[in-house]
């Protein structure tokens, strides 16, 4: 995933103090060597938009049957938000971090929402993440859906974590988030921008994921969300826009002018039946695009395949989307979305020693087709090791460093108790 998208065989990578210091021809041997000669090695995957607090809802006996995205928010997710405790925040973060490492994800960006855990909810999330070796960006979703006071509590939680708690963690950092435009006000947007720019942190926003965002913006501001946000000065901040499913070509032009990065969440968009983002126009404007799972699927390889499938289907052309692009989005693309492409996302000298080793079976792996083979055939079950900073932090025999069966039992117990409260 370097600029030339190089594929190399019969080489070894040297990592010292967590950093790649050399990539040299030939194999190495010795006690400190990870032997992956029969495997495919790719950079550590980067999940640029997730919701770890979604983990407990898998399998929940929910009675809701939403027929629109907005109904799913009202009938399911906002009830989950209100029911969350600090214990839920910690254990869902722990369980999700384990799943991501098992899937080859070494870096992620999360959005947490549990208003009744404030202040301190982000500390609980960070504690869950920090029990594992994964590195992550975390934030609380600011929302004024109940009141502006609650939104200000969300902004304050992000500021408090950045100012007071972040330094306690080696691998966890904070940023800012607005849930959506339609669940916030112009004053809250302005306050979040001021805070984020003062702290030099990005703001994430769910942008035009569902049509409700578009309709409410036109009703409240007389224009579509991107134009309304531009008028509010939102793009004065560094912005990560998740979804952009209903962004028009003219809106994408505005996003591109402001160097907005896009977190594409294809599996989530399928599952919520909201539509397909116009990534082709984004690519034409040379926008930075990465892949996220939106909390739905811990297997990033399935997320890659979802991207391939929906964009081929949209064009009704089996050659209508370059499969290798999905691997780029899940590595160097997502790293660039998060502003971390100087450290992760590719196997290059000077970057962190983050790798995934894959057993793809008996077929030969050829230089010309290797990326396509990975995207078309790999799954989390094929991940033999996840390596961060040159250290193996997951393998199929030992599991994830720092986590045992009792921890995962606690994750499941907390989920069952949440179901009872719901």
Structure report:
This protein is 40% helix and 17% strand. The protein has 422 residues and is α/β, with parallel strands linked by helices. It has a single domain, classed as Alpha-Beta Barrel (TIM Barrel). The strands form four sheets. The protein has a five-stranded antiparallel sheet, with helices on one face. The protein has a five-stranded parallel sheet with strand order 8-9-10-11-12. Strands 4-5-6-7 form a four-stranded parallel sheet. The longest helix has 18 residues, at 148-165. The chain starts with 10 loop residues before the first strand and ends with a helix. 50% of the residues are buried.
List keywords for this structure.
single chain, 5-stranded antiparallel sheet, 14 helices, globular, 422 residues, alpha/beta
Indicate how many domains the architecture comprises.
1
- Helix content range: 40-55%
Question: What is the CA-CA span between the terminal residues?
Answer: 44 Å
What topology, given as strand order, has the largest sheet?
3-13-14-15-16
Label the overall shape.
Answer: globular
- Report the structural category: alpha/beta
pLDDT < 50 runs, ≥5 residues: none
The CATH top-level class label? Alpha Beta
Provide a compact summary of the structure.
With 422 residues, the chain is of the alpha/beta class.
Indicate the topology.
Blueprint: E1 11-16, E2 19-25, E3 40-43, E4 45-50, H1 69-83, H2 86-102, E5 105-110, H3 121-130, E6 135-138, H4 148-165, E7 172-174, E8 176-178, H5 186-199, E9 203-207, H6 211-221, H7 225-231, E10 239-243, H8 249-257, E11 261-264, H9 266-271, H10 279-284, E12 289-291, H11 300-315, H12 323-337, E13 355-358, H13 370-377, E14 383-388, E15 391-395, E16 399-400, H14 405-421
Parallel strand pairs: 4-5, 5-6, 6-7, 8-9, 9-10, 10-11, 11-12
Antiparallel strand pairs: 1-2, 3-13, 13-14, 14-15, 15-16
């Amino acid at each position: 995933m370097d600029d030339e998208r190089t594929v190399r065989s019969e080489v070894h990578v040297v990592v010292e103090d967590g950093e790649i210091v050399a990539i040299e021809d030939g194999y190495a041997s010795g006690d400190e060597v990870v032997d992956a000669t029969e495997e495919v090695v790719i950079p550590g995957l980067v999940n640029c938009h997730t919701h770890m607090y979604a983990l407990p809802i898998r399998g929940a006996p929910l009675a809701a049957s939403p027929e629109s995205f907005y109904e799913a928010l009202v009938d399911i997710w906002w009830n989950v938000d209100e029911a969350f405790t600090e214990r839920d925040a910690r254990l869902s973060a722990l369980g999700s971090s384990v799943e991501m490492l098992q899937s080859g994800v070494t870096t992620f960006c999360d959005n947490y929402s549990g208003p009744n855990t404030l202040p301190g909810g982000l500390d609980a999330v960070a504690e869950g993440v920090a029990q594992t070796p994964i590195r992550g960006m975390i934030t609380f979703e600011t929302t004024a859906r109940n009141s502006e006071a609650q939104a200000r509590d969300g902004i304050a939680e992000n500021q408090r974590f950045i100012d007071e708690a972040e330094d306690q963690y080696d691998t966890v950092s904070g940023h800012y988030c607005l849930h959506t435009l339609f669940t916030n006000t112009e004053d809250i947007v302005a306050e979040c921008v001021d805070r984020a720019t003062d702290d030099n942190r990005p703001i994430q926003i769910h942008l035009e994921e569902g049509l409700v965002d578009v309709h409410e913006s036109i009703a409240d501001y007389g224009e579509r969300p991107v134009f309304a946000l531009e008028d509010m000065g939102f793009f004065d901040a560094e912005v990560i826009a998740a979804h952009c499913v209903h962004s028009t070509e003219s809106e994408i032009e505005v996003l591109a002018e402001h160097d907005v990065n896009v977190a594409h969440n294809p599996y989530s968009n399928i599952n919520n039946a909201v539509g397909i983002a116009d990534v082709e126009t984004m690519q034409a404007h040379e926008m930075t695009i990465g892949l996220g799972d939106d909390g739905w699927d811990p297997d990033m390889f399935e997320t890659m395949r979802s991207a391939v499938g929906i964009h081929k289907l949209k064009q009704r052309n089996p050659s209508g989307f370059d499969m290798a692009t999905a691997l780029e989005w899940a590595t160097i693309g997502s790293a660039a979305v998060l502003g971390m492409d100087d450290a992760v996302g590719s196997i290059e000298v000077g970057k962190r020693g983050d790798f995934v080793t894959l057993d793809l079976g008996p077929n030969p792996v050829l230089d010309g087709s290797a990326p396509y083979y990975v995207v078309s055939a790999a799954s989390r079950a094929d991940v033999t090791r996840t390596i961060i900073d040159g250290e193996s932090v997951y393998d199929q025999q030992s599991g994830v460093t720092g986590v045992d069966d009792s921890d995962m039992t606690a994750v499941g117990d907390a989920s069952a108790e949440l179901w009872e409260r719901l």
